[in-house]
Amino acid sequence: MIQARIPTEPAIAIVGATGAVGEELLALLAERSFPARSVRVFASARSAGKTLRALGRDVTVEPLAPGCFAGTNIAFFSASSAISKEWAPQAVASGAWVIDKSSAFRMDQRYTLAIPEVNGAELDALRAPTIIAVPNCSTIIALMAVSPLHREAGIARMVVSTYQAASGAGAAAMAELAQQAGDWSAGRPLQTPIFGRQYIFNLFSHDSAIGADGQNEEERKLLEETRKIWRDPDVAITATCVRVPVLRAHSESINLTFRTPITEERARAVLAAAPGIELVDDRAANRFPEPINATGRDAVLVGRIRADHSQAAGFGLNLFVSGDQIRKGAALNGLQIAERLLK
């Protein structure tokens, strides 16, 4: 059993502790009473020496160095892919389980790409310290909502349009949006160091690199990661990813085509019973998922559940979801992986 090899009170390390996801993870450790024996925090050399709060104790930020993971049982990585590629294997070699938020190992077939509510059984099958990848935030939010329906009726095709918040680009992007709001109100010129364009009162195609086929990286991740997590190479997925002027929490419009028919009522019942989901689907009051209401929440909000009448009866469904990108889309998902390993 995994529990026999990870202490019930593990020593943990957080790489990238001063970033938005690292800070959220530190807060979640306390909020969820994670039973860590000790917490070490790592960041860039310029952050070394800073003091952070972890489980009621002050801890000093350290720079990464050879041998720094000795004695660590679980290492969370919330830094760049380059950092993960260099240091995550060293952490595993030191005997630590690595939970990595970057894209470095997501599509590496040697490693599990995990959302505990979706494919947690794969975590239960692991027998030795390894790297466990956390999916992209848009993938997590979408699959939390649609995986219960996939298990029920089989999804043949999924069309996703995302409405992604500044939080997906980090704390500096959130600060830029807030700064532009203030500058706009004061009649000052807008500062655009992060996105190079006006963000307030605007939206634009996701700022990730665009490939020769016209897809950006974010759109490609939704396809490739979903196929890996579901172990379904045939599911058809197309996405359009857009950055919107919202501080925190991503939203997604999702259109589904099923392999076997499912009624709107059955879909609503399946989602209502699914872990990590909260139905917000009040047609009478016109109340549906909104990113402001998803902010700071563990649950992914799901609503606008309705039949797609352009498809054969029972085979098409529309829904709209909102989920906190920093929380369930990153830090919380990683911590839930660690909690499952301990169990």
Number of domains: 2
The N- and C-terminal alpha carbons lie at a distance of 9 Å
What would you call the structural class? Answer: alpha/beta
- Name the beta content range: 15-25%
Task: List the total number of helices.
Answer: 10
Which CATH architecture of the largest domain is right?
2-Layer Sandwich
Query: What's the CATH superfamily of the largest domain, by name?
Result: Dihydrodipicolinate Reductase, domain 2
Uncertain segments are: none
Strand order in the largest sheet: 3-4-2-1-5-6-8-7
Write the layout of secondary structure elements.
Blueprint: E1 11-15, H1 20-31, E2 38-43, E3 51-54, E4 57-63, E5 74-77, H2 81-93, E6 97-100, E7 112-113, H3 116-119, H4 121-124, E8 131-133, H5 137-153, E9 155-164, H6 171-186, E10 204-205, H7 217-230, E11 236-243, E12 250-258, H8 264-272, E13 277-279, H9 291-294, E14 300-307, E15 316-323, H10 327-342
Parallel strand pairs: 1-2, 1-5, 2-4, 5-6, 6-8, 7-8, 9-11, 13-14
Antiparallel strand pairs: 3-4, 9-12, 10-11, 12-15, 14-15
What does this structure look like?
- It is built from 10 helices and 15 strands.
- It has about 350 residues and is of the alpha/beta class.
- The chain folds into 2 domains: about 1-135 and about 330-340, NAD(P)-binding Rossmann-like Domain (Rossmann fold), CATH 3.40.50; about 140-325, Dihydrodipicolinate Reductase, domain 2, CATH 3.30.360.10.
- The strands form 2 sheets. An 8-stranded mixed beta sheet has the order 3-4-2-1-5-6-8-7, sandwiched between helices.
- The protein starts with 10 loop residues before the first strand and ends with a helix.
